């Protein structure tokens, strides 16, 4: 195989990869803005049950974190299993520390 054939073959493989354009990023950015607007509206609206507002804010926060991790930190892409596993382990350790601290303080 000549150098020119190898270069042409490399270019074909290189261009066949799917490039994620800015369209998804714009859609995800708008979705993040909508989630933030819903959270602000829930807090600023008077007469809404406080428990409902807290639950809505927690749901909006979880959705926001998933969107941020999935699209802006690219954890939805292939090859990111180890960072995901380490984050799950970190959440487990942090949750255990919080529960232990609360148990220790209130016992």
TrEMBL record:
<keyword id="KW-1003">Cell membrane</keyword>
<feature type="transmembrane region" description="Helical">
    <location>
        <begin position="26"/>
        <end position="45"/>
    </location>
</feature>
<feature type="transmembrane region" description="Helical">
    <location>
        <begin position="84"/>
        <end position="106"/>
    </location>
</feature>
<dbReference type="InterPro" id="IPR005171">
    <property type="entry name" value="Cyt_c_oxidase_su4_prok"/>
</dbReference>
<keyword id="KW-0812">Transmembrane</keyword>
<dbReference type="InterPro" id="IPR050968">
    <property type="entry name" value="Cytochrome_c_oxidase_bac_sub4"/>
</dbReference>
<keyword id="KW-1133">Transmembrane helix</keyword>
<keyword id="KW-0472">Membrane</keyword>
<dbReference type="Pfam" id="PF03626">
    <property type="entry name" value="COX4_pro"/>
</dbReference>
<comment type="similarity">
    <text>Belongs to the cytochrome c oxidase bacterial subunit 4 family.</text>
</comment>
<feature type="transmembrane region" description="Helical">
    <location>
        <begin position="51"/>
        <end position="72"/>
    </location>
</feature>
<protein>
    <submittedName>
        <fullName>Cytochrome C oxidase subunit IV family protein</fullName>
    </submittedName>
</protein>
């Amino acid at each position: 195989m000549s150098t020119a054939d190898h270069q042409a073959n490399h270019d074909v493989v290189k261009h066949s990869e799917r490039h994620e354009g800015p369209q998804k990023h714009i859609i995800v950015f708008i979705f993040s803005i909508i989630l933030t607007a819903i959270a602000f509206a829930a807090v600023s609206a008077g007469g809404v049950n406080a428990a409902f507002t807290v639950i809505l804010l927690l749901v909006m926060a979880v959705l926001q974190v998933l969107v941020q991790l999935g699209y802006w930190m690219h954890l939805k892409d292939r090859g990111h299993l180890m960072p995901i596993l380490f984050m799950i382990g970190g959440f487990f350790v942090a949750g255990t520390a919080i529960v232990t601290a609360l148990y220790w303080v209130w016992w």
